[in-house]
């Protein structure tokens, strides 16, 4: 019995619901037919022609899609909220089954032609495929979504730590202030439904109303302008661009710590130069192609590239000097003056001989090194006696033969000069005679068949210090 009663109750409830739904649907059908039977969507909804249509306007941002620095375009996803009153769309809810709201296609009613003035693409108007909400008192609410590409002047001076100010200017394209008066809802862009961006952060987005008179027309036009202050999030560029660039720049300094015998000095410099060139190309693709502003990071990379280029030139010069030998080149006088005379004094450096004198005391007359003209050996000192074979260059040679020859030279008042990098020793004119080796035979024995009168000690390094 209870089951039969429950089934009867469900059937009655369903019939009542279907009856009421059918009544509402029929009421809306009658209301729609009544409203649009004599409605003209091309006429402004005002009872007096001199009265303006008050349109309340608000922008809600859903997403900051992209900021194109190269083309200077900001792409945003916006919801434009329009609210106005249309006296021709009023009805009595009691006459239509208590219906207070109705949704109608937006192309069937009059709409304000509000567009984005600084649009960067050809389509200036929003899509009218969305429906509008009508209230029984004539209030119309229309919130069409749209993706706008607005022009934005990008300043990349402090890239990637830059701030940008992009504006969006909305207003009626054909109606002046006497026909449509815009009223700003709120003071900023509505960000309640905003989807956070991974590259930009919105600092502020205030809105302002302006009344402007253009040169083309006598009327005054009203617009609402929103200023979008955004800041770039620099973490991505810091990790992937700035830190590697700084590390590569430090490698330029390390080039000068490599020894000259290492053959990778120039290779390292060229590798650093190529790496900096790649980073500069990446920045060029990111910033706008303009000559008005150059980012600081671009100037830094350019300066570093110049520095690396100079380091390559200096490295080549150093290697050229390093591989010069006394057998192939003669040290110029200006090189000796600059690098052995001027630079040591500037860098507070002293020659090794002076350091030795500072620790051992000043030398006496008998210990001084007399530098005179090159020693010319008399012909009677040149005998047919050969030097030991396979003698390596600059090997200390303290043989009795040489010591005796030096003694003979001391008698004639000559000495060996430290001149032109060809000889690295000088003869001290001592009060006593040079020592001789009794085992070497005749003290007047000379150095084997030399064929020249000038004795250049290229193969001996006699250091009396």
Automatic annotation (TrEMBL):
It catalyses: Ca(2+)(in) = Ca(2+)(out); Na(+)(in) = Na(+)(out); K(+)(in) = K(+)(out). Residues 29-233 form the Neurotransmitter-gated ion-channel ligand-binding domain. It is a multi-pass membrane protein. The chain crosses the membrane at residues 235-259, 266-288, 300-321. Gene3D superfamilies: Neurotransmitter-gated ion-channel ligand-binding domain, Neurotransmitter-gated ion-channel transmembrane domain. Belongs to the ligand-gated ion channel (TC 1.A.9) family. This is Cholinergic receptor, nicotinic, alpha 3. The gene is CHRNA3.
